[in-house]
Specification:
The chain is an alpha/beta fold and 454 residues long. The chain has 2 domains: 117 residues, Urease, subunit C, domain 1 (Roll), CATH 2.30.40.10; 310 residues, TIM Barrel. The chain is built from 13 helices and 20 strands. Strands 1, 2, 3, 4, 5, 6, 17, 18, 19 and 20 form a 10-stranded mixed beta sheet that branches. The chain has a 5-stranded parallel beta sheet with strand order 10-11-14-15-16. Strands 7-8-9 form a 3-stranded parallel beta sheet.
Length: 454
């Protein structure tokens, strides 16, 4: 495989012969899982990655010229809120799958705060089945830790783990588990199923009623703040409990300098902890709330610049394992109200790659390989998805092809999600998905969904 090239992408269709597939020709193939980073060809045949190398003979299959583009493992999102069952007006599993495919994702992990809550095998199996029916990405359901997400009695963890959905990540996301005793017992129980205890770190006694990050800006805007310590205290508790029990711990959407340092220290001590950060927490600060835009209201809140810089540093040095979207769709009427009454959350599946490339790669904080590692390889590894996060020859062809230098303007009206709540509307970003392949089948071609009526 040769060095870097720069050219415009075109596609040249050839008649399909006995073997179906695609030859991605002349792209920069980047696979952090195998250490590959070189210009060459990637052959998809009969839905698997058949070969990676120079000047591969395509035979009679279709050749797609990807010169100047990056060919990488399909993205994996550890933190997607779908609203089905319960609020299909905001998002269905099918619409989330469309948004994910358009954003370069081949797998998403869905959070359990649906209605009914995904706290039983029947609910997670429904989510799993609807994901298979959508057919655009692998839908990996997370299960609730507690019944009804109220943190009092254990959800049906064993049944969910043994179900056809094979749940491995359990969380009460949207709420932090307030009882240390419950958290300990849940961790002890999860060990038997090789489960992951995932925490939304928020001490409600400190955060209750807060609208934004507590600091100089919250005082100036006259809004009650949520201190960084609300996150850090629970993160410290759970790290201690992970050390005590040996249970795998994953900290969701961390946002403060203290939490980053806590994880850094815990990893050095051998505690089995991983964590994620979101594009909005490494892109925006609480300055985005100056205009009281409800679309910039998220939980945990956008923090001050020093916290954002700490998150970027944590991503750069590997303390933060994964970049996750925390995709949280809301109906227009729910967000288009006074700031204090609006629910927190934004949609992120279709902007995550571009924001990562714009803010981290192009600004020199992450290499291209490291960016792909955080968006694909690490989340696949944490979730135990061997068919994702790799371009291994012989494995399923879950692949994204993107132009790292393409500039475009975010237009929420063009989203494939049913919801439009984003603070990034009108923002110019650099880096765009061109093609996505899920299990060898194209789901996005030339930045357009394939065979999907929307």
């Amino acid at each position: 495989m040769s060095g870097s090239q720069q050219a415009r992408s075109t596609s040249t269709p050839f008649a399909l012969g006995g073997m179906s597939g695609y030859l991605l020709k002349g792209g920069r193939v980047v696979d952090p899982s195998s250490g590959v980073d070189a210009v060459g060809d990637l052959l998809i045949a009969d839905r698997v990655i058949a070969e990676i190398g120079d000047s591969i003979d395509p035979g009679s299959i279709e050749v797609i010229d990807v010169s100047g583009l990056v060919v990488a493992p399909g993205l994996v999102d550890m933190h997607t809120h779908v609203r089905e069952p319960g609020r299909e007006d905001e998002e269905t599993i099918a619409s989330a799958a469309r948004a994910a495919a358009a954003g370069g994702y081949t797998a998403i992990c869905t959070m359990p705060n649906t209605d009914p809550v995904a706290d039983t095998a029947s609910v997670v199996e429904k989510v799993w089945a609807l994901g298979r029916e959508a057919g655009l990405v692998q839908v990996v359901p997370a299960g609730a830790l507690s019944k009804g997400l109220v943190g009092e009695s254990m959800a049906d963890i064993g049944e969910m783990a043994r179900s056809v959905a094979r749940v491995r990540l359990f969380t009460d996301d949207g709420k932090g588990v307030q009882s240390a005793l419950f958290a300990r017992r849940a961790m002890e129980y999860l060990i038997a199923f090789d489960g992951i205890y995932a925490e939304h770190c928020e001490d409600e006694s400190l955060a209750l009623g807060g609208q934004m990050h507590e600091g100089e800006r919250s005082i100036a805007l006259g809004m009650r703040g949520i201190p960084a310590e609300a996150e850090e205290l629970m993160a410290a508790r759970d790290v201690a409990l992970s050390r005590l029990t040996g249970c795998r711990l994953h900290l969701l959407h961390i946002s403060t300098a203290g939490t980053v340092e806590l994880v850094r220290r815990a990893k050095s001590e051998g505690v089995p902890v991983t964590c994620e950060a979101t594009p909005h927490h490494f892109t925006l600060t609480d300055e985005a709330l100056e205009g009281y835009d409800p679309n910039a209201k998220v939980n945990p809140p956008l923090r001050s610049e020093d916290h954002r810089d700490a998150v970027i540093a944590g991503l750069a040095d590997g303390t933060i394992d994964a970049i996750a979207t925390d995709h949280a769709p809301h109906a227009i009427e729910e967000k288009d109200i006074e700031f204090q009454y609006a629910p927190p959350g934004l949609v992120g599946l279709e902007t995550s790659l571009a924001l990562t490339l714009t803010e981290l790669f192009h600004k020199g904080h992450l290499s291209l390989s490291d960016a792909i590692e955080r968006l694909s390889c690490a989340p696949a590894r944490i979730l135990g998805l061997p068919d994702h996060g790799t371009l291994a020859v012989g494995g399923p062809a879950n692949v994204v092809v993107f132009d790292p230098d393409a500039s475009w303007e975010v237009d929420p009206h063009l989203f494939h999600s049913l919801s439009r709540n984003t603070p990034f509307g009108g923002r110019k970003v650099t880096g765009r998905v061109v093609h996505t392949f899920f299990n060898g089948n194209p789901t996005t071609r030339d930045s357009e969904l394939v065979g999907v009526s929307v």
